[in-house]
């Protein structure tokens, strides 16, 4: 390859779908029951009104949420660059506004990736899940009041721990109501522990990976982002966590809330580590939170998380059927649209129950025959009864990556083949692959032939080695980008599509320019236990820089009556609760709330000392020495190419 050819700038505009992708989409149109339009009828049922284009603005005039960029989805027929099944789901997720589920129960849908459910009691309205942002929650409440009249909020229920279900709570409850403590905030047991910890320790890496899962930096359009499976995308805006005042502990627990009886079922370690379902006899309404939605859910999100328990998930759905089968006239979840009628509800629950059980059992069966995770993904096929159920399609999760999650849960990352025990990292192995395959030109010539045949999966594998070996090889970057693009066009899973297309975009244009990571919100910090704060600090410690150092600091918090010894030794930061070291380098006495303000960058440590909020003994510079050993994590880092900055 000549230097000129090597440095040709790749075309930055998305390409057309290849002939093999077009043929795949044609086969999908024949294979799936597109004539079944009940979902479209049910997604529109009970519509009362909406906000134009679902557009929500912040107080500063920033768009927090809008469906206007998705106007292209008005077309009934899928373009060749989108899987027709995914196109169908993307169009269903365009329904937005206030909907009546049954008289007395309403949902806000399409103003966020998640739903807000509003249940009218004897005195006011109970709000179930508060969307992602405060701005979105306020807009949702205003829309509800516009059509149902102004009513007091008599309770807030969080069904589970993910941010899109609690982040907007301050848009539902104002400061005066919160201060009065008159409105119960009800959540499943261990809600706080998981809500604040699930995405914080590994938060920087998760947020970067989430860009691939949700595609926020992709253009909206037939050659870009069209959906996320569960809904359109994650909302922007302000987020704050409210601490629950009442925890549901066990299946069978009941509460009378604003005159309504609620029957609860616990579902921990299913879609979220703390999650619950409920049934309201007065309305014959069943809500299964996020465990029975209109797609096959994720057992391991691309952003990262603890692997979810498919077997437990299936059992919770079976238990829900036992508890409430034949009793519900309507079932709504916290994503997607409801279903009505006892037979249809029970059928959907049974099929979802069996979807997760089939994936679990057949993965384990094949695993016990000696198949590895990729081999299981290539072998397993859903039975026709599940494959043909629209709500079982893999728009958010997918059978091909869910089985890998199940394998990981039981056996971990290692497939027992010693060749995979300690492989070379991507750059070093990439260079050797390129050498073994005869150099860049030979790889690209062969890749072009396989690309023309539609063998995109292997082309991506082969050319990725070349990109990691020669990251500035523009022909290689262009070929890999084109390949990712075709894989994205062919994907039924919205998350797969987003990942492939965003990978293609970064190869062509580089990483998006993003502002620095903002400080952790004051409200979130206040929700963290002090032990969790020390854990967060520990993962920021740069071990090599800390070589040979020993620092011991005493902490005494006057507002929480907590004492800690923070100890740096052997390049690890540990702590002891309820103790003070007699030979500490320094001791600090302060309110825990002041430490939160410092971390949130609302003040500095010296300013707080000068203001008399912090008292100390010993050498306070030892704290500064410790903080000099802490890494600041970047908001962006390379994924589809080598790291440009060395990390020690």
UniProtKB/TrEMBL annotation:
The keyword Nucleus does not apply. Its cofactor is Zn(2+). Its EC number is 3.1.6.21. Residues 113-335 form the Metallo-beta-lactamase domain. Transmembrane segments: none annotated. Gene3D superfamilies: Alkyl sulfatase, dimerisation domain (1.25.40.880), Metallo-beta-lactamase domain (3.60.15.30), SCP2 sterol-binding domain (3.30.1050.10). InterPro entries: Alkyl/aryl-sulf_dimr_sf (IPR038536), Alkyl_sulf_C (IPR029229), Alkyl_sulf_dimr (IPR029228), Bact_Alkyl/Aryl-Sulfatase (IPR052195), Bds1/SdsA1_MBL-fold (IPR044097), Metallo-B-lactamas (IPR001279), RibonucZ/Hydroxyglut_hydro (IPR036866), SCP2_sterol-bd_dom_sf (IPR036527). Residues 1-20 are annotated as: Disordered. Keywords: Hydrolase, Metal-binding, Zinc. One of its GO terms (biological process) is dodecyl sulfate metabolic process. GO terms for molecular function: linear primary-alkylsulfatase activity; metal ion binding; protein dimerization activity. It holds the Pfam family Alkyl_sulf_dimr. It comes from the Bacteria. Belongs to the metallo-beta-lactamase superfamily. Type III sulfatase family. This is Linear primary-alkylsulfatase. It comes from Bradyrhizobium canariense.
